[in-house]
Every structure is written in C-alpha cells, then in structure tokens.
Write a structure and sequence with these properties.
Length: about 260
Amino acid sequence: MPANFGDDEQKANDPSAAEHRQDAEKAVGRNPHPDFAKVQASRPGWDHEKSWHFTKSANPDWKQGDGANDGGESLKTNHVEIDPYEDGRPAVFNYKLLISAIIPRPIGFVGTRSEDGFAGGFSNAKDTLVNLAAIKECTINIISEHFIEAANATSINAPYGTSEWDLTGLTPAPCTDVKCSRVKESIFSVEGKLFSTQEFESRATPGKKTGVLAIVEGVRFWVRGDALNEEKNLVDPAILRPMSRLGGIMYGRTVEGCEIPRPSW
C-alpha cells in the first residue's frame, strides 16, 4: 500500500469503499445542527477552573433492599420495546440508538502503522483495521481534556495513507515492544499486540460483513509520572481528566466522583 494513497487512486482501486467512507457520516446524521458555529457561539465557554472533586453519593443512607434512590420516579413511565430487526428499520437507527444510550464511553484512540512503515489511521476504523490486521500490533491512547480537539480531528474521512500526526499536531513517542508510536500527550497509553479477530455478518442482509471485533493484548503500559502513585497501580483522575463519548457529536467531562464501598456478606 503506497504511503500517499490519494482519493483518485483509492476510488480507482476500491470505488465502493471510497464512496462508503465519504457518505457514512451523512447517513448517520450525527451532527443535529445545521449551523453548528452559531449554536457553539451561544453556549458558555469552557470552564478551565473546574477541578476534580469528590461528592457524597446520591443517598449516603441507602440500606439493602431500598432499591433506586429516586423514590420510585423511574417506575412511573413505561418503556418502549424496539425490535432491532423490524422490517423497514434502517441499521443506522440501531447504531444511533446504542451510541446515545451506552454512555459515557471511554475513548482510547488506536495508533497503527501500515506494512510499509507509514503511520496513520489511529482513529479511522477502516485504516486501523487494515493496519492492525497487517502488522498485528498497535497502541491505545486514552484521551484527556487537553487534546480533545486534536483527537476529534482524527475522525475525518481522510484517504488511506494520510498521516493523522500531521492532521492533529500531536506528538509521536517511541514504544518498547511494538513499532507503532504512542501519543506523547496521552497520560495513559498501552502497547498492544493483536490476539484475535472475529468478523460479524448482518442478520438483516446475509452475506454482508458488518463489523470486526479485534482482541488486543496489552504488553506494556505508559503513565505520565505526575499521574501515577508510588506503587504504580493507580492513575489519578485529577491528572488524567479523561473525556468520554456520548451520543451524536457530544463529549463528556469527568470532573467529580463519589465513593461507595463494596458490601461484604
């Protein structure tokens, strides 16, 4: 695979894949705002002073058998049953439903290299899978507040072979057990080696491959020194300040937490 695999060459080699990559976001309709810049301008600015802190749990006096802490409010509204394979239901509806409901999701973008040594595609599913399947190794980098915009830039539908280091301005750092670079700005990174992959087929359209599960073994960890405790077994959330994915184009901050001891029988 050439290092600079441009749009024209990509379309010539795999026109269906190229068109799919360009149309995917349009089909999902992830951005609900026709004029996002206008919506963004109406919102309050980012609060840089907000720091990690603990609060009490919602009901510190909860006892076994008490149930939910909302006094039964969550039982007053009925649920809607959804058949994901209902006739006429687009598959993209299931995708949008799941990414809006299974939240917050931690974000760890994946660093890979192509067989010819070209680094790229660490958040583009197609590029990541191509490179991971070829070289069997990667890095996983947890995203924090201080580079959320750069990390989001990796979601661009760039042609295969585009270096996302250039697109993001992030800094590659060397690894020990894999050839891929980790993201130096990331407070926590993992060097990984591919253990196995499992391809999945659409139930609605037999024969159509719709996804691949890749299981990666973590073989080495990297933690920024000021975020790590002396025993090297805990990362400080006040330093990590992780970002999470919500539905659509939303991200979430993690700036407070509560502690609830696990019960003992």
